[in-house]
Amino acid sequence: MMIARTHALVFQSKLLLLNVANHSYRLTRTRKALKRVEHFRSELHRAETALLKTGPGELVENGDFWLQIYADLIDCATSSLCRMRSAMSSSEATDRFETATDVQMLEELIAQWTSRMQLIRQNTAEAGQHKV
What we know:
Elements: H1 2-28, H2 31-52, H3 56-61, H4 63-89, H5 93-131
Helix pairs in contact: 1-2, 1-4, 4-5
């Protein structure tokens, strides 16, 4: 369970670092800043893959733990989305396009996490019925 928590914290950290890199790129427009954005997108994808490798059995067995992990990730991603959306209104067209791509990715992740939370709740309820 500690490994899963670590994966979730790493994902959350990579998400925050990607936001900082995006902001830096919007300000400087340097190739170095763009490479940092690409690097953190790749790191975020890797962290997401590790997080999603959690098996369904562990999700039921540690349901409350996973519900909290996904709730924390959704809160972090939602906060990041708000900042990104507000920054898009004052950005140039190319910056808006790049940010829109990141926004779409976060929206898809939030949908996946919400779906997993529903699955955990459903499986936990079913497991509780079988115990009775």
